[in-house]
# Entry
Amino acid sequence: MAYVKGGNKHDFRRGAPVENATRMPASGELIGKVTKIAGATKFFVACTDSNTRLCSIPGRLRRKFWIKTNDVVIVRPWVVQTNERADIVWRYSLLDINRLKERHLLDTL
# Structure
């Protein structure tokens, strides 16, 4: 049985609800939509700057999320071949996608 510091195991129910903030792209990152799977960790992604890039998942993130067609992701373009290649750094959940639509960030996809 796990004990919570400062109280019993049910204290987490009494706390204030935690608001999960949607991760926004940092400088140099773009939002994109997966259009086609090209292999184990390679994906074609249509980005908000109207380029289609061949994206891969870096090794440290390969087991953290599974990506399917039509998923919305954050990509970081490579320094070399900026308009052709990128790395996928984040995958949005369905709730996050709805928040992005409310902010009109997915209008160009």
